Amino acid sequence: MSVHTANEDGRQTGPAVPAASATPKARMSKRQKAKLSRGIQYAILIVIAALIAIFADWPTLIDSFGRVDIAAGMFPDVITMALKNTVVYTFLGFALGLVIALFVALMRLSSVGVYRWLATIYIEFFRGLPALVVFLVLGFGMPVAFPGFNLPQLVIIMIALGLVSSAYMAETIRAGIQAVPKGQIEAARSLGMSSSRAMFTIVLPQAMRIILPPLTNELILLAKDSSLAYILGSSVDGRELAALGRAEIVNTANLTPFIVIALCYLIITIPLSYLSRVLEKKYGSADSGVK
């Protein structure tokens, strides 16, 4: 049964309209949800930082890791000797690894099956071995197996770092070469270029634009792997950062040298990380516009 309403003069005007239900609650937009989520995350981080600041044993931490006198005693040797040796070892290993990686990558892409198999075995072998094992074999295993194998320590470090890095860089170079359009090679061959000339004058220069950022990342990893050179032992003048830090910790019975050494590694890796981002932004944006 419908209910009618009447106006002021008594006439009915039609069925009565029921009262509107309560307005639905406004839903949060995606932007508001993201803002709320970030706020919660920041709050959690602030709480964690506050708890660490309140409950940490700061006097013990400072005495164990923040002795200014011990840190000052490491200078200038930590810069003029250890940091310099680390940089030298890193770039020598990188240079050797890049040369080996280029040949291995070309073998990996060769039409000759034997070359492809040899390159694949090489890559999988050295990618599967820990860098520590490579240092131990070259430093201690080879002289035992071959009594005349007495190379200078600098050469052993360079070879070890080169072998470790080349397996990774070979795959990076291979991917960069394959990313170059095949039409570039076909155009070069149509002009009468040989395959090798087309590879070194046309393909590789273009591939380098693609592989520069990942190669820079490999250089960063190699700088950290150079710390394994301390297991070979060295003279005082031949110590890199890890060897110097270990010696200072033994001499001072304190862990402050670890902090100094960590900061020195950051001096190397932070600029390289920035360079990698710049190269990736520059060449990545340049390549994205090429169809």
Automatic annotation (TrEMBL):
One of its GO terms (cellular component) is ATP-binding cassette (ABC) transporter complex. The chain crosses the membrane at residues 39-56, 87-109, 121-145, 151-170, 255-275. It is a multi-pass membrane protein. It is found in: Cell membrane. Its main location: membrane. The keyword Hydrolase does not apply. InterPro entries: AA_ABC_transptr_permease_3TM, ArtM/GltK/GlnP/TcyL/YhdX-like, MetI-like, MetI-like_sf. Residues 1-28 are annotated as: Disordered. Residues 83-276 form the ABC transmembrane type-1 domain. The keyword Transmembrane applies. GO terms for molecular function: transmembrane transporter activity. GO terms for biological process: amino acid transport. Residues 1-11 have a biased composition (Basic and acidic residues). Keywords: Amino-acid transport, Cell membrane, Membrane, Transmembrane, Transmembrane helix, Transport. SUPFAM superfamilies: MetI-like. Belongs to the binding-protein-dependent transport system permease family. HisMQ subfamily. This is Polar amino acid ABC transporter, inner membrane subunit.
